[in-house]
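To: structure subgroup
Subject: Chain for Friday's discussion

All,

I'm putting the inputs and outputs inline so they're searchable in the archive.
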Amino acid sequence: MSLGPAAGSVRARYLVYFQYLGTDFNGVAAVRGAQRAVGVLNYLEEAAERLNSVVPVKFTISSRTDAGVHALCNTAHLDIQRRSGRPPFPPEVLAQALNTHLKHPAIRVLQAFRVPSDFHARYAATSRTYLYRLATGCLQSEQLPVFERSLCWALRPDYLDVDAMREAAQHLLGTHDFSAFQSAGSPATSSVRTLHRVSVSLGPASPYVLPQESRRLRFWNLEFESQSFLYRQVRRMTAVLVAVGLGVLLPAQVKMILESRDPLGKHQAHVAPAHGLFLKSVLYGSL
């Protein structure tokens, strides 16, 4: 009786940290079938095929990102089963091998760790932080450097009422039903989430803005931290906070929107553009 190709081999589970510029991808998830769209995981899985695992390598991601959204750091776990007699890859060798075989320049594996066989990249995460970048004072689209156009949301006004935005953000902190900030299509069974931190701050000056160019351009960072988020929650909260910064909404109205639990309201139905959003970090209590 044959024991199959995996007999005597050892399966090792790894947690991989990776980053990507989301412009060219239909999100992080792999796209199946004959579609022209492609996800980040399509390239990672293709690279993993070169590792000659006994069983196909599947990446289980911690955090889904939409088309056009970037990641400074996303994570996924994967299992690799080498042929009998071959030891598991050291984590640093795995990271280097994946980078060697990656065929898209906008994806990079940062590092890898060995984790227990029951570790789950999504469910074990204790914190996720998203960064949203804004640019103000951009009266015309061509005033924004070409290098920044897919990395921030360009706004025409040159002024944001940051104090009002920070006041409004306080209404979002804590545990709430965030139904008003959830887009249709969410697989979540509960819309209750706990937002641990929201910040609005002046970002560093862009190195791509030349001295002779408009000095009206300023860059702003919004950060949101929670264990998990609803579908498009961050982009919807960003749009509402920007409306406050522009004087379209009062800070107290953000509380009313939150308590309405209505995702189809006039203001909360707006979604900030995908290209300004970055998944900044995914943290684990045991790592």
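Points worth raising on Friday:
Residues 11-115 form a domain with the Alpha-Beta Plaits fold (CATH 3.30.70.580).
The longest helix spans residues 233-245.

D.
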